[in-house]
Design goal:
- The chain has seven helices and eight strands.
- It has 208 residues and is α/β, with parallel strands linked by helices.
- The longest helix has 14 residues.
């Protein structure tokens, strides 16, 4: 770990935007949110993650550089990937919800941005700038960490068939899931599953 503080004591944030997330293009809103960090006295680096492996590189790079906060602009998939890669590091994770469902942001009480209302993303950024850093628990499935949930069996099969979706397919976000769930359920007979947690264990055949 390398301290990220600059000689002036300035805090450092990398803002990483996933342009494929969500129903609408969001780069201009995310750039304005990054400007909120800069206006608050942060040193800000803005990056666009063109591909999944690029997002991985940027996340690991932020961790190695000892950046104070990695701000990811994307959906729950973006957030989950970043959280798993930051596990055990000194870099905090902040979220600008630009995805389709934004479940993690909603769980934190962060209102989704109103795309027709200028300034809503800046308000979210202002909350992040003045927010308190807290530790959260991570789960692990097959060696990979996850933040919000992990899908197994039929659920995981359907997600793998649907994702990643084209932006046009996100206009009706549940339609593809319903179609593939019905198709995949035919002949599905479950899987062997083992779940471990501190002080407990469940193992057996599951239809999930």
């Amino acid at each position: 770990y390398k301290p990220s503080r600059e000689p002036t004591g300035m805090r450092v944030a990398w803002v990483v935007h996933n342009p494929a997330a969500g129903r609408f293009p969001s780069e201009s809103q995310v750039r304005r949110a990054a400007a909120v960090f800069a206006a608050a006295g942060w040193s800000v680096r803005f990056e666009t993650a063109a591909r999944r492996d690029h997002l991985q590189e940027l996340t690991l790079g932020a961790s190695r550089a000892g950046v104070d906060v990695l701000v990811v602009a994307g959906g729950d998939g973006t957030v989950g990937l970043a959280a798993s890669l930051l596990r055990g590091s000194e870099t905090a994770l902040a979220v600008l919800p630009t995805g389709t469902a934004n479940v993690w942001a909603r769980e934190l009480g962060t209102p989704p941005p109103h795309w027709a209302q200028r300034g809503s993303m800046e308000l979210i950024a202002e909350r992040l700038v003045s927010g308190e850093i807290r530790s959260v628990d991570l789960g692990e499935a097959n060696g990979r960490a996850f933040l919000l949930w992990a899908g197994t069996g039929l659920d995981a099969r359907v997600v793998n068939l649907v994702e990643p979706r084209r932006r046009v397919d996100k206009v009706l976000p549940t339609t593809l899931y319903a179609i593939h769930a019905l198709r995949s359920a035919r002949g599905w007979n479950g899987l062997d599953l083992e779940v471990l947690w501190p002080g407990g264990r469940v193992r057996g055949r599951s239809l999930v």
